[in-house]
Amino acid sequence: MARIRKRILSVSLMCALTAGLVLPAAAPVAYAATTTKSAKAKPAKKATAAKAKPTKSAKAAKTASAKKRAAKAAPRKAVAAASIRHASYAPSAALEDADGNLSLRSSVAFVQDLNSSDVLFAKNEGAVAPIASITKLMTALVVVDAGLPLDEMIEITTDDIDTHKFTHSRLSVGTRLSRADMLHLALMSSENRAANALGRNYPGGLPAFVQAMNAKAVALGMQDTHYVEPTGLSSENVSSARDLVRLMREGSQRPLIRQYTTDTEYSVEVAGRHQTFRNTNRLVARSDWNIIVSKTGFINEAGRCLVMLANIGGRDMAIVLLDSVGSLTRTADAQRIRQWVQREIGAL
After folding, report:
1. What does UniProt list as catalytic (predicted)?
2. Which of 71, 177, 307, 344 is the most buried (most CB within 10 A)?
């Protein structure tokens, strides 16, 4: 019995000793297992990447698709009219290159150097199209040349409410402003009620005023131009790019038209409180533009229009943009024209 007890005690001591030696080694084994697992994961990731790598045919298809998308997204190139002459200051190939030198999105675009009378760019220059509120330049020309008293008070009536397009106006019925203020708002912020009131208060009323508008157009050689009312809300008021250049040149000879079309903002009293009106052409407020005459226009039939006389690189330029789609297109086209002209002048 004593031997048996002795043997049991000896076995127990050996087991305890063995347990104490083995247990501390468990932690490093677990760490090693984690390391091994992580190391194995990396090749698996690499294998996945290798699997996702496109084949040569897939690459070719992807490249062709990208080229197709790029070609589709590329802007349409404006094609200069055959009648375009070289500008006297830069008879270079760049002015007649239709593959990227000047790309405009307006349906009608016309750029003329007034110093030399050279046409620098033309796109659909012969198109006779609705001109929307560009009409108001002729309205202003007739009013100024009539010599009517500019301080005479004119009242907005129900006759001045737009029944063509039902557009909104900030000039409520009963508003009384001077003829000068009405002219200012008609030119600067394209106020339709103001323009109609000016025509209505012309000697002989609206019929006589419209007749005077058309007579002035004939006198200026505007053969493609016809007016039926003084606001531009009617799509029957039509003109062409070259005719509008004639109109702007004539308007630029009237200091009042130059001032009113290029003012950034103007305040008048309406319904007992001062209201500030702003220019519909945002470019007049930019320091990098030197604009002499400006007018915007919009009705659905005409699209968005912009005409300007501006000094670019020391030269007076006429810019006509008609039927632009989108509120920013005409402004963006004008910016492209200015940069293009500056680049051409700087290349001399």
Report:
1. 133, 136, 190
2. 307
Beta bridge partners of 315: 312
Q: Which of 146, 174, 107, 175 is nearest to 323 (CA)?
A: 107
Active-site positions read 133, 136, 190
Residue that is written with structure tokens 């505007």 in the block = 222
Instruction: Using pLDDT thresholds of 50, 70 and 90, give the confidence band for residue 68.
Output: very low
Domain boundaries, the chain: 93-346
Q: What is the dihedral sign for C-alpha 241, 247, 253, 259? A: negative
CB 328 within 8 A of CB 106: no
Q: Which residues contact 16 (CB under 8 A, 6 or more apart)?
A: none
Measured in degrees and rounded to the nearest 5, phi and psi for residue 322 equal -125, 150
Query: Do 190 and 208 contact (CB within 8 A), yes or no?
Result: no
Is 145 in contact with 202 (CB distance < 8 Å)? no
Average confidence (pLDDT) over 173-197: 98
Q: Under DSSP, is residue 1 helix (H, G, I), strand (E, B) or coil?
A: coil
The 10s digit of each residue's pLDDT in 124-180 is 999 999 999 999 999 999 999 999 999 999 999 999 999 889 999 999 999 999 999
- At 305-318, the pLDDT tens digits run 999 999 999 999 99
| Geometric angle at alpha carbon 189, from 102 and 223, rounded to 5° | 60
Tell me whether residue 295 is annotated as binding: yes
Say whether pTM exceeds 0.70.
yes
